[in-house]
Design brief:
Blueprint (H helix, E strand, L loop, with lengths): L8 E6 L9 H11 E12 L4 H6 L17 H10 L2 E9 L4 H9 L7 H27 L5 E8 L1
Parallel strand pairs: 1-2
Antiparallel strand pairs: 2-4, 3-4
Helix pairs in contact: 4-5
Length: 155
């Protein structure tokens, strides 16, 4: 379980951590108990509906297994928060291309420290990265952004 011996907090933030927790529901219970009335829970998590996941990760909703234990959509996050008594939930999608994961997959096809790897990395940075960046901005505008940013209040 989560440690319960803290003072009451006005806000709790879980930035790029929620998807790593073995018990996200338990965390929400803990956060709700910790936050004083009117306080906020702020969190971010990768968007399971992100366009880049469908294009570059074979449709995997969770792109960084086994470090990411859960994948969330805006709908699942909203339902979780409501079921744990959070209200006034606001979810926005921001664009943060998962460049490291994409680059790792490209580089894994070549021997480490080889000239081919260095060339591939340079080509990726000059050609594919700008395209990914632009595509990520467009996909966020269409509901497929990389990261969900959430705020919810305790009544």
């Amino acid at each position: 379980g989560y440690h319960r011996h803290f003072r009451i907090a006005s806000d709790v933030a879980a930035w790029n951590t929620f998807e790593h927790l073995p018990d996200p529901a338990g965390f929400l219970d803990w956060a709700h108990a910790l936050i004083r009335p009117g306080g906020a829970l702020l969190l971010s998590a990768p968007n399971a509906l992100a366009l880049e996941r469908r294009l570059f990760f074979g449709g995997d909703s969770c792109e960084d297994l086994p470090r990411h234990l859960y994948a969330f959509t805006p709908k699942t996050l909203r339902r979780m928060l409501e079921s744990h008594r959070f209200r006034d939930t606001r979810i926005s999608q921001v664009t943060r291309v998962a460049t490291s994961e994409t680059q790792d997959r490209i580089e894994s096809r070549f021997p480490r420290r080889s000239a081919v790897t260095q060339v591939a990395k340079g080509m990726y940075n000059v050609t594919l990265l700008p395209v990914l960046w632009l595509g990520d901005r467009v996909s966020a505008a269409l509901g497929g952004g990389h990261t969900l940013v959430v705020s919810a209040r305790k009544q």
